[in-house]
Design goal:
Number of helices: 5
Helix content: 55-70%
Number of strands: 0
Order of helices and strands: HHHHH
Shape: globular
Length: 141
Amino acid sequence: MRLDPPDNREVDYSKTRNNVTNWFDTEYSKYQRLANIPEISSVRMSLAPKSNVHANGIEDLTVTRANAKQVLEFVEAVINSLGDYKPFLEARYIKKLQAWHIEERLVFGHSQTQNRIRKACALFAQTMDMTAGTRLTAYKD
């Protein structure tokens, strides 16, 4: 296994934060909706080879739901790996708290909170880029 050398370019924190915000607003919320599709008790799993004809839509829905749950678990693991920055990313993007509420809850000033959210976004983006193949990190030209 060969690891690529770390990228030495300077991270554009503002654009990276915008990318992460957009990702949570679109992709993450999509996976949340898919993972919360109600289970259907009459699932019929067939051992027949999958064809292009959607003969078993319930099976497809079950697989989609399971995949979405796996993605959410993966994202949770990435967030848990952020250490001291975890509460900032969780509060802002998972719990959808406003900046003043995060400041009050985590007992940080406005500029400290904004800096930590920016750094949390950069760490999250870089980790997702390395592990999931996303392109969330933006670099300065």
